[in-house]
């Protein structure tokens, strides 16, 4: 199991000492389940989601597609039975995953992603998507693009704040969650030898490469009352947040590979 953390800086007017555009502390643990093909636990302070990936494997006959893989998503709430909201989230997450997995490579198979909410202090959807991304990588599932997700809210005084906790979500006039594709510009990477960074596996010298977040949105969830300009501002804020999430995820993966190589 590999665990890595990235914490926010000091000072702010928000209740927990964060700036409006500041993320909560990120923690990613990989390979946490023995029986899954890939797994990851993604935590953003009080919010935590465990993701397990099974497949690609032979699809059940009634779900089999002769030309492509079938993506199945199960979203389990922290407590109680699934409700309408949970099933709605399953559809949204499945749509995003179908957009990044090259389904045509695996006809007649299924890829199942099971997401279990362990703690929910705001931003559960973005936390689940980031957990799914890490688990898919851990399972070795090919992806057309990596992706990351961030939430934000519009406060009652019309200010945007990134990565809200549950209290901020409850008091918000509107809530947003955006998911973007990303890649890394290796031409801007600083060699590890020059920075003193620890490297891991081929390409780990590029751990300091710049995260490039695409302009196209893979998925969005917007709830509440907001103007067109506020929607665009929210998308831009989440896109900047996704850049930081992507950078953290890459560093976490590099450390995971280093730990596996040294085992």
Could you please describe the fold and organization of this structure?
It comes from Chlamydomonas reinhardtii (Chlamydomonas smithii). One of its GO terms (cellular component) is nuclear exosome (RNase complex). Keywords: Exosome, Nucleus, rRNA processing. This is Exoribonuclease phosphorolytic domain-containing protein. One of its GO terms (biological process) is rRNA processing. With 263 residues, the protein is α+β, with helices and mostly antiparallel strands. The chain has one domain: Ribosomal Protein S5, domain 2 (2-Layer Sandwich), CATH 3.30.230.70. The chain has five helices and eleven strands; from the N terminus they run E-E-E-E-E-H-E-H-E-E-H-E-H-E-E-H. It has helices at 84-100, 124-139, 166-171, 192-195, 228-262, and strands at residues 2-6, 26-30, 38-44, 47-58, 70-76, 109-119, 146-154, 160-162, 174-185, 210-213, 219-224. It has a six-stranded mixed sheet. Strands 7, 8, 9, 10 and 11 form a five-stranded antiparallel sheet that branches. Strand 5 (70-76), helix 1 and strand 6 (109-119) form a beta-alpha-beta unit. It is globular, with a radius of gyration of 18 Å. The N and C termini lie close together (11 Å). The model is unreliable at 1-12 and 190-206 (pLDDT under 50).
């Amino acid at each position: 199991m590999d665990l890595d953390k990235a914490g926010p800086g000091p000072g702010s007017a928000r209740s927990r000492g964060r700036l409006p555009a500041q993320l909560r502390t990120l923690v990613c643990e990989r390979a946490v389940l023995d029986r899954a093909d890939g797994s990851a636990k993604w935590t953003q302070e009080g919010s935590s989601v465990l993701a397990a990936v099974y497949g690609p494997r032979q699809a059940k006959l009634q779900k089999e597609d002769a030309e492509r893989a079938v993506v199945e998503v199960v979203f389990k709430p922290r407590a109680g039975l699934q409700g309408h909201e949970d099933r709605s989230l399953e559809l949204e997450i499945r749509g995003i995953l179908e957009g990044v997995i090259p389904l045509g490579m695996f006809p007649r198979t299924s890829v199942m992603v099971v997401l279990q909410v362990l703690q929910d202090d705001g931003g559960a959807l973005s936390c689940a998507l980031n957990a799914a991304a890490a688990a898919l990588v851990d399972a070795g599932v090919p992806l057309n693009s990596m992706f990351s997700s961030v939430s934000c809210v519009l406060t009652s005084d019309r200010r945007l704040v990134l990565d809200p906790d549950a209290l901020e979500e409850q008091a918000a006039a509107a809530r947003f969650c955006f998911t973007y594709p990303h890649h890394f510009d290796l031409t801007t990477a600083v060699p590890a030898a020059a920075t003193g960074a620890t490297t891991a596996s081929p390409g780990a010298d590029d751990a300091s490469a710049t995260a490039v977040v695409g302009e196209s949105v893979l998925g969005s969830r917007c709830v509440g009352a907001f103007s067109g300009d506020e929607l665009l501002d929210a998308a831009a804020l989440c896109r900047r947040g996704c850049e930081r999430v992507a950078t953290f995820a890459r560093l976490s993966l590099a450390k995971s590979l280093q730990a596996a190589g040294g085992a």
